[in-house]
């Protein structure tokens, strides 16, 4: 795993630990969640949502690979922050809208190339949360926003082909208006 991915994961876990350490200070409710779609894709993730007002909450999330999903060379690490406004009578229930951002990086290798990318996302989103048990919610959401990505494409080579002349073949800076998040979250409300 490259150093940048390790630092992103470390920062994310630090944020999560700070959230849990400060939970009694101001949060009325705390929820832990996972996106089942990412989990099914063998990309683990975790989110912590803090209710900070009568109808507002903040969510911190981490996503990253720890193995080779789909038997491919993929390393991924992202951290996200979302602000949610709950349109219903209380937080963590029914309809919500929000804004958020995500930063991260990934490395992908195929037979010919290695792709290294840093990315940033700014999005607006909406969704709905259904209570399914006393402390459990089921949540669907969809987000659209601006995706900014700098991708480096490097030719694969054998150790015999490695020279000081091997450099980045192509660097692309791309930005797109696109679907930035789709989620089916399973949520457990801690308090």
Write up what this structure looks like.
The chain is mostly beta strands. The protein has a single domain (3-189), classed as Porin (Beta Barrel), CATH 2.40.160. It has three helices and eight strands, in the order H-H-E-H-E-E-E-E-E-E-E. It has helices spanning 3-21, 23-26, 36-40; strands at residues 30-35, 45-51, 56-64, 73-86, 94-109, 113-131, 136-155, 170-189. Strands 1-2-3-4-5-6-7-8 form an eight-stranded antiparallel barrel. A hairpin with a 7-residue loop joins strand 4 and strand 5 (94-109). The two termini are 35 Å apart.
Provide the β-strand percentage band: over 45%
Give me the strand/helix succession.
HHEHEEEEEEE
Whole-angstrom Rg: 19 Å
The parts where pLDDT drops under 50 for at least 5 residues are: 23-27, 159-168
Task: Identify the notable features of this structure and list them briefly.
3 helices, 8 strands, 58% strand, 191 residues, Porin, mainly beta
What topology does this entry show?
Blueprint: H1 3-21, H2 23-26, E1 30-35, H3 36-40, E2 45-51, E3 56-64, E4 73-86, E5 94-109, E6 113-131, E7 136-155, E8 170-189
């Amino acid at each position: 795993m490259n150093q940048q991915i390790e630092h992103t994961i470390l920062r994310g876990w630090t944020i999560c630990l700070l959230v849990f350490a400060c939970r009694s200070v101001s949060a009325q409710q705390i929820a832990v969640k996972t996106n089942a779609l990412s989990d099914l894709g063998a990309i683990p993730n975790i989110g912590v949502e803090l209710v900070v007002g009568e109808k507002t909450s903040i969510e911190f999330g981490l996503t990253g690979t720890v193995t080779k999903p789909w038997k491919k060379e993929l390393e991924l690490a992202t951290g996200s922050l979302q602000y949610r406004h709950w349109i219903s009578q209380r937080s963590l229930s029914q309809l919500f809208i929000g804004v958020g951002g995500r930063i991260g990086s990934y490395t992908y290798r195929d037979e010919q190339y290695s792709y290294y990318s840093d990315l940033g996302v700014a999005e607006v989103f909406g969704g709905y949360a259904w209570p399914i048990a006393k402390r459990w919610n089921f949540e669907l959401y969809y987000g659209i926003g601006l995706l900014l990505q700098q991708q480096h494409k490097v030719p694969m080579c054998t150790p015999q082909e490695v020279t000081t002349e091997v450099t980045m073949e192509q660097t692309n800076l791309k930005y797109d208006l696109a679907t930035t998040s789709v989620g089916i979250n399973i949520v457990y409300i801690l308090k």
